[in-house]
Amino acid sequence: MTDPADLPADAPEDSAHASSSHVIPLASRIPNPQPPRVIAIANQKGGVGKTTTAINLGTALAAIGEHVLLVDLDPQGNASTGLGIDRRSRRYSTYDLLMGEATLRDVVLPTAVPRLSIAPSTLDLSGVELEVSQDRDRAFRLRTALAPLRASPRVGDVTYVLIDCPPSLNLLTVNAMAAADAILVPLQCEFFALEGLSQLLQTVDSVKSTLNPDLMIHGIVLTMHDARNNLSNQVVADVRQHSNQKVYDTIIPRNVRVSEAPSYGKPVLVYDLKCVGSEAYLRLATEIIQREKELIARPSQPNDTIDSNQQHGAA
Question: For residue 7, what are the contacts with CB-CB under 8 A and spacing of at least 6?
Answer without folding.
Answer: 110, 114, 115, 117
